[in-house]
Amino acid sequence: MVKIGIIGGSGLDDPNLIENYTEKEITTPYGDPSSKLTCGKLNGVEVVILARHGKNHEIYPTKVNYRANIKALKQEGCTHILATSAVGSLKEEIKPGHLVFPDQFIDQTKLRKLTFSDQYGDVRHISSAEPFSKELRQLLIEETKLLNYNHHSKATIVVIEGPRFSTKAESFMFKNFADIIGMTTCPEAQLAVELEIPYASIAMSTDYDCWKEDEFPVTFEMVMQTMKQNAEKVKTLLTNVIPKIAKKDQQLIKSKIRTIPNFPKPGIMFRDITTLLLDPEAMKRTINILYNRYKDQPIDAIAGIEARGFIIAGILADKLGIGLIPIRKPNKLPYETISHEYQLEYGTDKVEIHKDAIKPDQNILLVDDLVATAGTALASAELIQKLEGKIEEIAFIIELDDLGGREKLEKKGHKVFSVINFQDSG
Prior knowledge:
With 426 residues, the chain is an alpha/beta fold. 30% of the residues lie in helices and 28% in strands.
């Protein structure tokens, strides 16, 4: 499940962006974030809004607890971050009101904590060659073109300490090696990189800093006025692009699953997840979708169905910090077992579980790689229920829509979740 963190800059932390929102207080090992988290849905996608400068714009850039902000979004399960901010333009063609999607930064800050690894002996060197997510930037750029907004698809942002604006000498110097200037992108972007959260900046040009002789030098009032005038643009952009971000993960995962025609017999389209397992990025996103769905649910253990279900269940159990229960074909488990026989198209098959694997009333998540006709999943669910376990949900990577597996499971009272769906015929 995709969950988008929105870091609201000046004037862009409006909770009315989302429906049915709730506010949540959260703390982190690095202290409290700048504001409560506003959680809800935007166009059907889960989002979390954090006000970078506080709800009343009471925190100036140097004093923002960037580590707590990024960590709070990570703790809340955010899979992506879109950060809005006001910037000054260092180029004639980047006019006030234009949107800018920076691809590089130059960090000129001096007083901020730049990393999560600040304990003695915990030394990490993080690559910052590409600090902004190319995928997120591309989606933002494509949507901005559709909306016909003036924008700039590449820019280098220089980040200064603040809270003061530049002197003319500084502004002319920065103009030589950067396109826009701001106060908040660093260390925010690099901290997101450190926690492996794709991050993109939606920067709105509000002024020409102070290098342009025929323009008034930037003031805070000027920044806020321009942001207020143009905030609706960014809100529309967020509303339109966020559902496309949510679909992108599923599209990537689906593209990494190999289809083998006529296997194991003519007429069958076999969906092979070994190619998904080979791809670290697609696999990470798959597990993140499952993790974000189940991290706050009262699950005591995960039951994985032989054989590929073991792999998914094992990785997810480790990430959730709970136990793994194997459900296997006959004569594979060494201790006393119970079994359940089920009907195949031709003949029968059987699954087994250790008698002591589940205690009464334990909440179990049942996991397999694929649901087609659901015979194995139904038999595995029966085993869990024989041991008086409670099935929280049955989760699959792949669901074959037209084979009726979901309907059979739901008819038995089970909740079902699948990451992606295929039609059996293609």
